[in-house]
Sequence to fold (302 residues):
Amino acid sequence: MKKTLIIGSTVLDIIINIEKLPTTTEDCHINGQTMSIGGCAFNVQNIANLFEVPHVFCSPIGTGIYGDYVASQLKEIGLSPFVRVKDQDNGCCYCYVEANGERTFLSYHGAEYTFDPTWLDGINMEDFDQVYICGLEIEESTGNKIISFLKENRNLQIFFAPGPRFSLIDKKKLDDIFKLSPTIHLNMDEILTFTKTETLEPAVKTLYSLTNNLIIVTDGENGSYLYDGEHLQHAAGIKANVVDTIGAGDSHIGAFMASRKFGYSNIKSLEIANQISAKVVEIRGSLLPADVFRQIIPKLKP
Fold:
């Protein structure tokens, strides 16, 4: 099995539980606060690790209290920082979780969202066949370095999760990525906002016309959809007792990528991804425990 390259951030998530988001000048009490290691790419690699998919996790760690915290948490789970950036602080993410489980992020970006292709020097890209990238890194000043790296390694199938800031990413950067025919993974709100449409079918057709590759759309308890240019397929949602939705989308794309590596069809991979994300929303934070994972996904063989 060829390897998967995962490019992106590892951050400290400060999870703040509230009844509802406050309005301007309002004074609110919170229901609780916890700290956890997170980040979109980190959540994806956690799923790849659970599936035992061989991968390289290219995630820079900065300095400062947040960087030291992330480095120590990685060590606790048996990982080493891929690279320490010595001249820039690591950031953090404030995750406001409302009573219904929905989350809102306020992010302080640091070294964790940067990229330098020299970090991958000495790694043979012919050993890899797919790569995960996130819109947050593309939006940053070093996003063009990621795009240049992808252009130089056209053997890699790109899985692109543009995220809730999809419409804010520089158009030139998006055009360059679209020309590389990525599989795009996003939620219903993100695709409708980006395509300026009101329903799913015209939205996926519009986006597909730009990429000519699979479009995967998640829609919470309603399940998820896959469009291949001809057919719009649906995988039913799975009932879940939602605690918070942090990491649900990251885990979904990670599970889809892993399932495809094991030879499952696109629709079966979508169904497996739905199972995984349904369990992630039932826990606090984004990290699905290995024992829970094994309850729903048996040992897989490529």
The first strand starts at residue 3 and ends at 7. Residues 240 and 278 are 6 Å apart (CA to CA).
